[in-house]
Amino acid sequence: MKVGLNRGCMRSLIDVVDLTVEEIDELINVANDIIENPEKYQEKCKGKKLATLFYEPSTRTRLSFTAAMMELGGNVLGFSEASSSSAMKGESIADTAKMLSCYADIIAMRSPKEGAPFVASKAASIPVINAGDGGHCHPTQTLGDLLTIKREVGRLDNLTVGFCGDLKYGRTVHSFINALSRYKNIKIVLISPEELKLPNYVKYEVLDKNKMEYRETTSLEEAIPGLDVLYMTRIQQERFVDIDEYNRLKDSYILTVDKLQNAKDSLVIMHPLPRVNEISVKVDDDKRACYFKQALYGKYMRMALILKLLDEAKKNPQKEQMYNLDEVVFDKFTCTNPRCITSTEQELTQIFKCVDKKNGIYRCIYCEKKANN
Ligand code: NCD
Predict the structure, then answer these.
(1) Residue pLDDT, tens place only, 253-272
(2) How far apart are CA 149 and CA 291, in angstroms?
(3) How far apart are alpha carbons 361 and 352 in whole angstroms?
């Protein structure tokens, strides 16, 4: 289920597929130009304000958004934890987004609730960027990941990409696979424990629907030799209901210098960071380790994205239409995902979208969980 935004209207970025491949190429070109000619961009956002609304911990994403706006000559306001916002008093996401539309020109929002930035984008009169929603998606991390591959490998097609670790809750993985599904000849290797396999909505709606070649394995050692890119991830402790399960799974995969012996010379090792124990620090000296560069590239892509969305908001200030009414049903099902924004904001209309007419499959428009029908 892809939300998809109406062209010709003010744009937000909720899911990576809200951008076309051509638009992603354009962002990559702008990011490369920023890297080459930073001085050209240092006043582009003069007088503009970015609001960073972070209801969940973050180092890289929030600070790279902040650095991005500062390097464009703009200003930043916001909060970095829910406890210092009116969310503590029970303010809804929609009300907060409406308020912020009076104070800022663009919003970057992170929330533990899946679909929260989507709700904000419907209420705000300024562009909203999803900076990570629960275990769902993280499109701006993906933009930085794509620039990393483009610069380090030189291409975005004909690649075998291995994802290792927490593929169930790792939102960076979900968004990245979605983005890769639009390039040619991508082979995906999913390396995870049984308990942390890729969710079905990514498997069915992205890999299967796009007829992508993929396989699942539990062995990192077995997968490594065939990979062009290895994307390591942290086991997402904060999403586990059962802490004993987390403790059992937390050190499932540790990339060491030894394990890299059979890897390609040209392998690109990525990690969205923070790393907990998944990559030995000794690997940092390997020329194939790209995770710190990846964090830097994320900042340049966020700069390019802020420029694009502000420019489009200026050209097309009118709001997008709400939904394609042919595809959605209102209050017919109730989402059972405890991480969905509808679980805490009970006044939100339950909206489900039909993703498979033949088999009558509907998915929640906020978090993509399948309806129990
Ligand atoms: C990731 C996230 O928040 O999903 N971090 C980030 O934004 N770079 C990955 C993680 O927390 O494991």
Answers:
(1) 999 999 999 999 999 999 99
(2) 11
(3) 10
